[in-house]
Amino acid sequence: MHIQQEMDLYQKLNILTDAAKYDVACTSSGVDRKGDGRHMGNCQAPGICHSFSSDGRCISLLKILFTNECIFDCRYCINRSSNDVVRTSFTPEEVCQLTMEFYRRNFIEGLFLSSGILHSPNYTMDLIYQTLYKLRNEYHFRGYIHVKAIPGADPVLIEQTGFLADRMSVNLELPTAEGLKKLAPNKTRQKILMPMRQVQAKMQENQYEVALYHHAPQFVPAGQSTQMIIGATPESDYQIISVAESLYQKFELKRVFYSAFVSVNQDALLPSLPGGPPLLREHRLYQADWLMRFYGFAAGELLNEKRQNFNMLLDPKCDWALGHLEQFPVEVNRADLGELLRVPGIGPKSARRIVQARRFGALDYAALKKMGVVLKRALYFITCSGRMMYPVKLEEGYILRNLLNVKEKLPFEVQNYQQLSLFEDIGAVKMPGQLTINA
Amino acid sequence: MDNRTIFFCEDSIDGIFTAVYDAWASRLGLGNVTVEVRGNQTLQLFAEYRQVETDHEKAAKVAATIQKRLGLEDYQVLYQAALSKEADKGEAVFRTLVLGLAEVKKKNITRNLGNPAVMRAFELSRTVGFEAHRYQMFVRFRELENGVLFSEIAAENQVLPMIGEHFSDRFPMENFMIYDRQHRDCLVHPGGKAWVILQDMDLEETMIRNYSKEEEKFAALWKGFVSSIAIEERANPRCQMNFMPKKYWKYMTEHDKRISV
Are residues B61 and B127 in the same domain? Predict the structure, then answer.
């Protein structure tokens, strides 16, 4: 039984923002929608961030819970039913008003609406649907909307909501079904995957509708995403990226987000993390995620049954390249795009620039540098017109020591972590080249 | 140092394009001429300066030629480069254009990043593009007493022409203004009409501080939202400043110290 007192909008917004902040996704990407010349709002495919909070995360959407009341008791969640926190709910009207007024002032790209489970999944999903309906049809909002599909809600409700939103997401919560069973007793893997599959199927169907009838309403045009918590359960990095890979392939997700576990509840089933959230691990997983989505890597290439976790000292791409020195050096003026993408220090942008620029003539190292190639990393792996930048040995130990010297540009919060753990982890780094150097 | 002829022009797109036209038509040899915008640079001793009168017809011809012969992608790059604050932008635009017109078979000369002149134009364009994007992100409107949405910025490059389309498309029926204190330009969009840029504007300071009744409320709500969304355990001010350098904070509602939460 909750005792409720009247709260003003300011208090409500603070409580329901605070309760929503552990959701990672705040992207406004994936859909291009021009303005219609009359109503407010448009969308740009790359998305636009509007601010950055003091933890360095981007603020693109008005990220709130509709309500923080919840009948579920997930161990890791601040809003679990057994927690004694102040509970409150918005009305659809309030959400619409906040969204419109914030949007007008260029604070946000749109709305991210999630919710605790009030009464039942259906009841909650219906409230969300009504809010979006009002926002789209009464306020004529044309900006971005990201909405949560509530697992266990009626498929009809989810489908109708999907026609109003740009992106939908169902959180996988934990990488494996066992972890979920342990920490989220009210949820099952199957219940989470069902709406995901439904949204995927409807999106495929909708593609044909839109192709046939140009003005057919679009269903979740920016695709769906999900997130999982890292470090609350004992999965390995290999398991996690394999799950991510199969989500990309089998469920056609646009994004998988990784959220370093932040301990908000005292619970015997949760790990205590004296060093704070595992941020460096989260960073490595994002790097691997990018390698899978933009660089053509498969999960099995980065890690395998024998090597289950990422090297904390070296980014996954350098790590991979050191293990595959037989594929290097690569001739920048001739290699195809796929080969260039596998060189540490060359990203999708610089790779594309190289391919376009070399049609006009051979490139030299000065030009590569200006194009954005990180030469201090790339120089061990490339030749330019047959020459290496400096006379370097193509030898694992030698390159490894030099790469560790140049210091990877890590996000600030994990830099300290790296310094601390340097000596613990050093045993894990294999240095086969060491012998030859000493000799 | 060199005795080139420098076509000295007004610091605007049309000014630069007119100078490009005149330099090309001067028949002095393409290696002997260049384009420079008037500013407070030191003049070169042995160079000959020719003052260029901005001519919108000539500028339009140059723009059309770039679009036709080099392509839209190149036009975008050269246009953006011409908005830069750097003194050598005239030279970079002119050299790139000369190279592009010499390539008869290929378009998109701005992809030829191996060439230093093209690389310079590309760099200028990229810097301007980044800044324009930053202002798409960080412009903050305050609602004035009369319902007008007002925003001020202090941009290094001339970004207003690049963000006008974005905001008019987004807020078609709103009356809004974006004032660039650095260049004293003001982008004005009357609801339902096209946007214009007014030059050499000074604004009445009391008028732009006269907020509407609701404004304080939403500014405070927003400031509260920004502080509640941060996760304490992940606090990382350096990362925040990397993405959002402090020079932008001055005119942002969430960093306005006058608003109490």
Answer: yes
Alpha helices in chain B (DSSP H): 13-25, 56-65, 72-82, 89-102, 116-138, 160-170, 215-228, 237-243
> What confidence tier does A2 reach under pLDDT thresholds 50, 70, 90?
low
- Residue of A32, A50, A85 to mutate when probing chain B, most B C-beta within 10 A: A50
Query: Is B51 a domain residue?
Result: yes
Q: Are A286 and A260 in contact (CB under 8 A)?
A: no
Look up residue A218 and give its DSSP letter: P
**Are B113 and B147 in the same domain?**
no
Interchain contact, A412 vs B226, CB within 8 Å: no
Q: Give pLDDT tens digits for B158-171.
A: 999 999 999 999 99
Sign of CA dihedral B126, B129, B135, B138: negative
Same domain, B33 and B127: yes
Residue B166 and residue B87 share a domain: no
Q: Which amino acid is at B204?
A: E
The answer to whether residues B81 and B150 belong to one domain is no
Selected residues 296-355 of chain A with any CB under 8 Å from a CB in chain B: 353
Domains of chain A, by residue range, sit at 9-267+274-302, 316-438
Chain A residues touching B137 at Cβ < 8 A: 48-51
Residues B246 and B186 in one domain: yes
Residue A362's closest chain B neighbor by CA? B114
* B72 and B14 in a common domain: yes
**Each residue of A390-422: pLDDT tens digit?**
888 888 888 988 888 876 666 555 554 444 444
Q: Is the ipTM of this complex over 0.85?
A: yes
| Residue B212 contacts A where some CB pair is shorter than 8 Å | no
Domain of residue B191: give its range.
Answer: 137-255
Give me the residue from B151, B167, B229 closest to A53, CB to CB: B229
Region class of A409: left (phi > 0), else alpha (psi between -120 and 50), else beta: beta
Regarding whether B235 and B158 lie in a shared domain, the answer is yes
Q: Is the pLDDT of residue A370 over 90?
A: yes
Residues 6+ apart with CB under 8 A from B143: A104, A105, B149, B150, B211, B212, B214, B215, B218
B141 → closest Cβ in A18, A51, A106? A106
Q: Establish if B96 belongs to a structural domain.
A: yes
**How distant is the Cα of B46 from the closest Cα of chain A, in angstroms?**
31
Class of domain A9-267+274-302: alpha beta
Number of domains in chain B: 2
Which of A10, A27, A54 to mutate against chain B (most B CBs within 10 Å)? A54
